[in-house]
Amino acid sequence: MDLKSLKTFKLIATNGSFQQAAQEQNYAQSTVTMQIKKLEEDLGVKLFERGKKIALTEAGRVLLEEITPLLFSAESIRQKLTSYDKGEAGMIRMGAIEPTTSLMLPSVIVPFLKDRHHVKFELEVGNTNNLGHRVAKGELDFAVCSIPSAEENLVFTQWFEETLGLLVPQYHPLADKEIINFSDLTRERLLFPGQNSACRHILETYLMKQGKNLYSTIAIGSTEMLKKAVVQGLGLAIVPVISDKSNLEGTVLRKVNDMQLSYPIGLVQRKNQIAGNLQTALLNELRRELTAWKAPW
């Protein structure tokens, strides 16, 4: 008993004709006859009363009732798998760090999903190490972040270099200073990124290597809150240059001449991971957008 034979049986039962069932499926009538003969042999019952007019036996009526939802489900599965193969359906679970998530991903993800109504999509925002761990465990398909801690089954592909800059209020003296050096910051109150961010790690590593110290007792995990705190005069902030894409009124992003810091941002995946057509299509769009990003200095 197979789906093709069951479909043929349903067509005969619905149309009352072996010939019409054969025509609808582009089969020879002998093929249809053989399908029904084998189906009856497999089930051990007669399905049709053959005479001037074809009619279902009682067993045939029971079978028709049972297979109707089955054939509907089978067709639904076929359509879903066809859509999956075309990259029009499926599920994507991705992770990303801030501020990449807020400032760069919407312009890719929103149009990508707009006409793909059968796609299930989940975006998790977190820090690099946590996202890398979840990708390694198979809980996320991939992540856009910096280089994660060593995981045997992860690979990292760089897409762009994230540069750090100094965010100052528009009215601050440093906003108009031609060249800003590290020494200009020694008397300023600095707002640092959150403890687990790549930005914070690269900044602290630099300060340690240089034997330098900056006054900072405030760490804020949200880049957007950092920017608003700067606008309201709480202090100056070291932030990813990409933050300037949001163009927060009242701030100026400046380069610190002798503190040029950056870190790579890219794709984290499992080794030998096989991506479906849907995931590949999204990764191609993300790659195109993110590799085009260049820092303003």
TrEMBL record:
Pfam families: HTH_1 (PF00126), LysR_substrate (PF03466). CDD domains: PBP2_LTTR_substrate (cd05466). Keywords: DNA-binding, Transcription, Transcription regulation. Residues 1-57 form the HTH lysR-type domain. GO terms for cellular component: cytosol. The keyword Transcription applies. InterPro entries: HTH-type_LysR_regulators, LysR_HTH_N, LysR_subst-bd, WH-like_DNA-bd_sf, WH_DNA-bd_sf. GO terms for molecular function: DNA binding; DNA-binding transcription factor activity. Belongs to the LysR transcriptional regulatory family. PANTHER family: HTH-TYPE TRANSCRIPTIONAL REGULATOR YBHD (PTHR30419), HTH-TYPE TRANSCRIPTIONAL REGULATOR YTLI (PTHR30419:SF25). This is HTH-type transcriptional activator CmpR. It comes from Priestia megaterium Q3.
